[in-house]
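Memo to structure team: turn this sequence into structure tokens by end of day. - J.P.
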Amino acid sequence: MVGGGEGSVVIAAERRGVRATLGTYAELVRVPNLFTAPPDVILGAALVSAAGAGVDVVPMRIVGLAIASTFLYAGGTTLNDAFDAPEDEHERPDRPIPSGRVSRRTAFALGTSLLALGFVVAFVATGVSGGLVAGLLAAAIVVYDGWAKGTAAGFLTMGATRGLNVVLGTTAGAVSLLSLPASALLVPLVVAGYIAAVTGMAASETVGGNRGAVLLAIGAVLGSVLAVGGFHVSAGSGTLETATGLAFAVAFLWWVGRPLRAAVSDPTPATVGPAVGACVLGLVLLNAAFAAAGGVSWALAAGVFLVPARGLSRVFDVT
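Reply from structure team:
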């Protein structure tokens, strides 16, 4: 029989073990980044709403798609580490797989399961349209993680995953994507281009020295902000909606500006890594800036996700 004192020690040890395991898997899926996925979906839904499709009558579809998007993102980050395990043994030995806290086989199984779950949830939420986009998104994730990473095609593929995530949100409305205004159709492309540039910068994160990639990311930031202004003008946004969008765009510039300045001045791992992290989380603000066209509530619904993302980034790595 275990005495009271010994029993307490055992229970405490078990709790520490559970916390350590949860922390390991939170690290594996990049838990701060997971909160950047639903804002993509909210932006897509806001684009449909701004076009007058009345997407606000089916809020549960948006919730379902946001959950699906989160599963897809978690599956992508998990498979990323599974594929990168041999390289990480030298460059990032503290990650869950090379450190021995998670087996590579387990990571492959978990990542695949999360992608499948994301597809199923999207299909349940919006039927064939959501399932089709989620399937394309899952395929793009696998292509990037498994084969295209580190190449120009890989940067574009990663950008495409984010663009498709925005498109996933548009399936919350009972309209065809092609029926949306041209300006709305360009928004996923802007998001895709921004993330492609950030991915290119991230490719030199562990070695540094690629000032050109940082400059390209800065160009993508500036181009995205200009696109926000142009989108609100072309969409005929009201004064309040335009002001809200521009406010979020300024916040986006402020959020990514300082780390990008540091990275372009001295492109080393110590500066490029934080710049990449800031740009990944900053996408939430960019999404909110575009989403304001559908109304202030859409912008706030997207932007609020930066709060948990930022809080968790103090504990877990973003990149």
